[in-house]
Design brief:
This protein is α/β, with parallel strands linked by helices. It has two domains: 2-175, no CATH class; 177-340, no CATH class. The chain is built from 13 helices and eleven strands. The strands form three sheets. Strands 1-5-4-8-11 form a five-stranded mixed β-sheet. A four-stranded mixed β-sheet has the order 7-6-9-10, with no helix packed on it. α9 packs antiparallel against α10 (281-295). 34% of the residues are buried.
């Protein structure tokens, strides 16, 4: 079962083609989602697992591609439940009551097919702990042993293997506000990275990409920012393909690490440095006070960010003006603020 659910009726979605003529970016954020999380009654028992964050928050600006792999391979609704059995590294998907029901090959093949067909998505949200869609902690059963939550759903495993940079999460992970914020940030960052690739990768474009994302990465850890900076500076020293692959992998991996209040506070204080010639003592003291209030959990991040943007409107700086950290996509700002 696969279809696109449009959450806005404002015309067709445009796209940018790759060299093979395939759409790889769209005007709207496009997210693959396990159908049951959208409220579709496709569970083995005919029920659903509608998730309010997905439908009510992400649905404001995103377009969903609804997929239920178990229905897609012909199992129907309702259907006999399945579970992972055997070796957690390479389990089989067998029927719970009828072990002769083996859908391992079907789920694996469907995952490989959909990894190609969904090459244009910006992220994927899977159903947690599912033998087909779970990204982690899926129970694996073995004869005479206690089930171990060490498996990965067979369909999800193929999607993640074929698209290793794709931001993925499950609804349990997204129940945490910090995890939601991180997921949304990664979704938009991945989209920008793909746009760079589509436009034609060059060392010069990579240097610019790194420049505008420098403060964003710094919020996840200065060590990642320095490592990516060294890569971006290599330019002609590496073959473009290798440089592109290495930077993309390390960039998306860096964003997975939590951006803590302390790290954000360091970035915010760093930004004050671009205003030091313009602010009087009172303005600087106010900024430092608001940043410290954020660091200690008294106010949200938007408070010091808004105050900094106020001062940068008065005293523009060309480097700061390009920073994604302060000036993300409006849709990203909306979703991150609503998700907290």
């Amino acid at each position: 079962m696969i279809y696109v659910r449009r959450w806005h009726n404002d015309g067709a979605v445009g796209g940018i083609m790759d060299w093979g003529g395939k759409v790889v970016t769209n005007e709207k954020i496009r997210i693959g989602v396990s159908s049951c999380l959208l409220g579709e009654r496709v569970r083995y028992d005919g029920d659903h697992k509608r998730d309010d964050f997905v439908t009510d928050i992400l649905g404001i600006t995103c377009e969903f591609v609804s997929v239920c792999p178990e229905v897609a391979i012909g199992m129907g609704v309702p259907r006999p439940p399945i579970r992972l059995t055997g070796d957690p590294v390479s389990p089989r998907a067998l029927g719970v009551t009828d072990p002769d029901l083996d859908v391992t090959a079907a789920l694996t093949a469907y995952g490989r097919r959909m990894a190609w067909e969904l090459e244009d998505i910006d992220a994927y949200i899977f159903k947690s702990r599912s033998p087909s869609c779970g990204t982690a902690r899926v129970k694996v059963y073995a004869a005479g042993k206690t089930p171990r939550a060490q498996g990965i759903g067979l369909y999800a495993r193929e999607i993640m293997a074929q698209q290793p940079l794709l931001p993925v999460a499950d609804e349990e992970q997204l129940a945490d506000p910090a995890a939601r914020d991180n997921f949304i940030e990664r979704v938009f960052a991945y989209r920008r990275w793909r746009r760079l690739l589509i436009s034609g990768f060059t060392p010069a474009k990579l240097a610019e990409f790194h420049s505008v994302h420098k403060l964003s990465v710094m919020a996840h850890g200065a060590v990642y920012c320095r490592a990516l900076g060294r890569l971006a500076a290599q330019g002609k020293a590496q073959r473009p393909r290798k440089l592109c692959e290495q930077y993309g992998a390390e960039f998306m991996e860096a964003l997975k690490h939590p951006a803590t209040r302390k790290r954000h506070a360091n970035v915010l204080q760093h930004l004050i440095g671009y205003l030091k010639k313009h602010l009087d003592g009172a303005d600087k003291a106010e900024l430092l006070e608001v940043i410290d209030s954020y660091r200690t959990g008294v106010v949200p991040l938007i408070a010091p960010v808004t105050l900094l943007k106020h001062h940068f409107r008065r005293f523009p700086h060309p480097y700061v003006a390009k920073q994604v950290y302060l000036y993300p996509d409006p849709a990203e700002s909306l979703l991150r603020n609503l998700s907290m």
